[in-house]
Amino acid sequence: MTIRKFDQNPQSESSIEFRIATYNVHRCRGLDRRVLPRRIAEVLRALEPDVIALQEVLGAGPKGHGHDQELGAALGMGWVMGTTRLVRGRLYGNVIMSRFPINQHTQFDLTWKKRKARGCQRVDVLIREHTLHIYNVHLGVGLRERQYQAKQLGTFIGQDSIQGPKIVLGDFNEWGRGFATIELTQVLKSLDLRAFLKRRRTYPGVFPVLHLDHIFYDGRVEVLNVQVPRTRKSLIASDHLPLVADLRVQVPAR
Predict the structure, then answer these.
(1) Cβ-based neighbours of 33, under 8 Å, separated by 6 or more
(2) pTM for this one?
């Protein structure tokens, strides 16, 4: 599959074009039950993303480095991990990777009662001296749990102190218009996959029947293209398919 990479014209100061992806990598365990970070890296490399939001990533532990480091090295990207809990002594949570410089990293706790720890991480990336706020989200599976998390997330994202374009993406564990969608569309725009795709479902990977992965945005953002790549490798590398979007962000002229 050939995916067109949008050129970034350094002479243009009116807009920035970039490719962003969200991908639940399922601890790099494929549907064949093999744990292969290099296979996840191969799926992502073929997409040529500029910024990636990953969920369910195993980080460093007593026996050495984690999948975040392996993926970052394989893709040649910088990264930061938002740890939510430990799994068998290893860090576990969300990771944002970027070809652009990462200016700041903040993490929000979305854990509800005694359910599994959940979180949202915010990374500020610097693109040609402009700051873009990226939020990486992984919500829970329970209805009341997501209701609580959606309200918390809406508060975090709607902070007046955070100015500039915002992109919110990740695994929302929501396939219809539920609590998260209703809450977030009060402060953000939802990327409508129907305008770009006939096949919009991302889970489970080999035979997707649910659309759990979403992208929201705020600011002068234009969606140029959206894809859910279905290759032999992506269908088996994880229990999710990656969701990829080409975006154009209007910025003040300098």
Answers:
(1) none
(2) 0.90
